[in-house]
Design goal:
Helix 1 links the parallel strand 1 and strand 2. The mean pLDDT is 94. This protein folds into 2 domains: 183 residues, Bira Bifunctional Protein, Domain 2 (BirA Bifunctional Protein, domain 2, 2-Layer Sandwich), CATH 3.30.930.10; 41 residues, SH3 type barrels, CATH 2.30.30. Strands 1-2-3-7-6-5-4 form a 7-stranded mixed beta sheet, sandwiched between helices. It has 4 helices and 12 strands, in the order βαββαββββααβββββ. The radius of gyration is 17 Å and the shape is globular. The structure holds biotin. Biotin (BTN) binds next to helix 1, strand 3, strand 6 and strand 7.
Length: 234
């Protein structure tokens, strides 16, 4: 399914695909040994020295309404690949993957719009692989190396992509419903008191679960709220 492009160095694999999306086919995957300007969610930097897995996928056949769920399918695919290696990952809503409460992977989803119409979605994935020092991350983080799990980058990339393309047709047809059971089973925050930050706004409450559309269900002082975007702090 994937048309794979390997680069030794790039500013950001997401930027690479966004700029070229018009001339590249649906399903193009670009991965790089290092990124000089790797980006995370909320304009954060994603330090991308050699040793990590950095890749982006170009998707051109997605309905607007299901595009937020693509990151959730990708996060779940990362979980399946890590489970194949004997690990027990958990999902931190909406799409971080953690092992024992430490971040091992993050996803940056970016939409390409033309005249307000969705042309493509670029899904960028960073997985901590051979890094030995993750102090720069600014939150508890781990890597496969630190966990004592040995695999090579290309095997891990192929494994994640295998699970992603396997789930993609069903996600396009049914949306979050197609992954709801598996996603919920790995969902870490159930029943916890959390706050969710988006821009200037912070909403606090107790996590009730994930809605049929993949939103976070939070019981707040004002009632039950469905939250579609934000950064969750436990
Ligand atoms: C996050 O957790 O904040 C998301 C991190 C996403 C990082 C990946 S690495 C490959 C792709 N290219 C980028 O510039 N960012 C994503």
């Amino acid at each position: 399914m994937s048309y794979l492009l390997h680069l030794e160095e790039v500013d950001s694999t997401n930027t690479y695909l966004k700029i070229r999306q018009g001339s590249l086919p649906h399903g193009t995957v670009v991965y790089a040994d290092r990124q000089t300007a790797g980006r995370g969610r909320y304009s954060r930097k994603w330090i991308s020295d050699e040793g990590g897995l950095y890749f982006s996928v170009l998707l051109k056949t997605i309905q607007d309404s299901f595009s937020p769920n693509l990151t959730q399918l990708m996060a779940l695919s990362i979980c399946y690949a890590l489970e194949k290696l004997g690990l027990s990952p958990a999902l931190k809503w909406p799409n971080d993957v953690q092992i024992n409460g430490q971040k091992i992977s993050g996803i940056l989803s970016e939409a390409v719009l033309e005249k307000n119409r969705l042309q493509a979605v670029v899904l960028g994935v960073g997985i901590n692989l051979h890094q030995k020092n993750l102090e720069h991350v600014g939150q508890p983080a781990t890597s496969l190396q630190l966990l004592g799990v040995h695999t090579d980058r290309d095997t891990l990339l192929n494994s994640v992509l295998h699970f992603f393309w396997q789930g993609y047709p069903d996600l396009c047809e049914k949306g979050f419903e197609s992954i709801r059971k598996d996603y919920t089973q790995r969902f870490a925050a159930l029943d916890k008191q959390v706050s969710v930050q988006h821009g200037e706004k912070t909403i606090s409450g107790r996590v009730q679960g994930v809605s049929p559309r993949g939103a976070l269900l939070l019981q707040t002082a004002q009632g039950l709220q469905e939250i579609y975007i934000g950064d969750l702090q436990a």
